[in-house]
Amino acid sequence: MRAMIVAAALATFLPVGALAQTADDLKNEAKTPQNVMIYGMGYSAERYSPLTQIDKQNVKKLVPVWSYSLSDLQGGEAFPVVYDGVVYITTHDATAAVDALTGKQIWRVKHDYPPATLRVVCCGIVNRGAAIYDGMIIRALMDDRIIALDAKTGKMVWETKSPDPATPANGYAMTGAPLVVDGVVIVGVAGAEFSNRGFVEAYDAKTGKHLWRDYTIPGKGEPGSETWQGDSYLTGGGSSWVTGSYDPKLDLVFWGIGNPAPWNPRARAGDNLFTNSVWAIRPKTGERVWYYQASPHDPFDYDAVGTPINTSVEVQGKPQQVVIQANRNGFLYVLDAASGKLLAANPFGKVTWASAIDMKTGRPVYTDVYKSAIAGDKVTVWPSVTGVTNWQSFSYSPRTGDCYINTVNVGMTYQAPEPPQLKPGQPSGVPTVKRTVVTDDPNVRGYLVAIDPLTGKVKWKTPYRSPNFSSTMVTATNLVFTGVMNGEFQALDADTGKILWSFQTPSGIVGQPITWEQNGKQYVTVLSGLGGVYALHGGDPALQDQPTGVTLWTFALFDK
Predict the structure, then answer these.
(1) What's the pLDDT band for 425 if we cut at 50, 70, 90?
(2) What residues contact residue 464 under an 8 Å CB cut-off, 6+ apart?
């Protein structure tokens, strides 16, 4: 059996009708603080909560209410979904429903894979969450299946397979959470490090029928194909492995597109569209309305896959709908949401490959470091392939006007020798370049940074021995929550960066915190469980003895 329910206590559930979520319910999530239904805590992906019960004065009274084991040693990166008093959580091979107030398991489904599946995943055997819609929990599996489970029972409603060539044999894997918009399930794919051609695609939420696919690398004769030399587009990469966001008024989905393949740029002359870009697409048809490419002809694996936040900010005294992305290349971009026009681009960490972004052309102003790397010389460049940030999501507070970003303070030596000859499924990353990690302070490999996205002004930055690969969340009481690789779950003052509260969980945290309300009480939930590519391959000495094991934790204020 590919899916097996291993536990159930179904009598406690509400009727199926009460579990239905409509397209309008998802659009109005902000009005239901007892529920967290969308990756990023709403279509805007701001990861901002209006809840105010937990504040700077009482946050020290936070205590764990319950914890739940996911029986997984690979890593806990998933975004928890909360609906009607139930938390839905995923790992790479399981989906579970847990009572939100007690932590008691309601059901758990185990997902089996063919033996070869996990051997082709380059960057951590993980899953980043599920979507909820119309009484179903919808998620992607690592062998490129998309499934819908009954939220009440965990039983399979439908199962579909991404059409060819999306197979593990060709290096494709699905690790991100789906985004459901008006009954359309939108998913991305990983695999640029295995020389394939990336895409974003969509399915009908009721039936699982495949609706459309947008290749991120244009085929011959298509717009953008002139930016690829010869047949290099066939192995061009451009993964889409992190979930996007959605603006209902513009009816646009914003999705980040990853690095070109191979890492060695000498095998693919040109700008290599549409890699390292932010896309705006129509959810019903997949039509690409605009794109912005952050790193043309990228040699350094500077994915642009981070979830784009869409929100309203004041530009020249007037409110304007924008898209904000903390890019792996080290620049924080602000784009007009309707047109993609560049409004601001500011560094938020150490960057040596470019000195600035030209505001007229939108292109990087390259340094000699970049030019020498393209020529095949050995260089020292910041950031490393890990980026100034990676897949982890940042948050934005409309109250403070600041973004809260977990950053990486690591560089690398880099050299691209003679270009390789590739075919689909062949590793296109590390074997094609030579690189080693460098640091300027081994005791500070990361910061949590508060930054104004329009001006680039850094309000504060809090140092960490290892970079935080947990996402951040900010609340209306100016608290920032995040996890630490050493296992601490923390709340910081959004105005100063001071750590106000910390709780030690059993393993490193690379999960995504959320907050929600039930019966007038505010709760905070996060996964603990070390994993992911940095923990496995980053060579960080501070993580060598960190235990693994994924557990789900929920906290609330101590009543007495």
Answers:
(1) confident
(2) 444, 445, 446, 447, 448, 484, 485
424 φ/ψ angles, rounded to the nearest 5 degrees: -55, 135
- Write out pLDDT tens, residues 181-194: 999 999 999 989 98
Neighbouring CB atoms inside 10 A of 476's CB total: 14
Structure tokens at 219: 């085929």
Q: How far apart are CA 136 and CA 121, in angstroms?
A: 27
| 527 DSSP 8-state letter | E
What Å distances lie between residue 244 and 45, 130, 185, 304, 482, CA to CA?
A: 8, 13, 12, 11, 20
Strand 473-475 to 48-49 pairing: parallel
Does residue 301 have an active-site annotation?
yes
Q: What is the pLDDT of residues 79-131, one digit of tens each?
A: 999 999 999 999 999 999 999 999 999 999 999 998 777 766 777 799 999 99
Question: In whole angstroms, what is the distance from residue 117 CA to residue 175 CA?
Answer: 12
Q: Of 42, 39, 53, which is closest to residue 523 (Cα–Cα)? A: 53
For residues 169 and 119, what is the distance between their CA atoms, to the nearest angstrom? Answer: 9
- CB distance 181 to 187 below 8 Å: no
Selected catalytic residue, list 301, 303, 402, 540: 301
Report the distance separating Cα 278 and Cα 347, nearest Å: 17
Nearest to 284 by CA among 223, 167, 395, 204: 204
How far does Cα 540 stand from its chain's mean position? 22
Contacts of 125 (CB under 8 A, 6+ apart): 74, 75, 92, 118, 142, 531
Phi/psi for 61 (5° steps) reads -90, 5
Residue in the block written with tokens 């159930």 = 8
Q: Which DSSP category does 268 fall into?
A: S
As a whole number of angstroms, the distance between CA 487 and CA 543 comes to 10
Q: CB-based burial of residue 273 (10 Å sphere; 0-12 exposed, 13-18 middle, 19+ buried)?
A: buried
Burial state string for 501-537 with b = 16 or more CB within 10 A and e = fewer than 16:
bebebbbbbbbbbbbbbbeeebbbbbbbbbbbbbbee
For residues 87 and 37, give the distance between their C-alpha atoms in angstroms, rounded to a whole number.
10
pLDDT, the chain, mean = 94
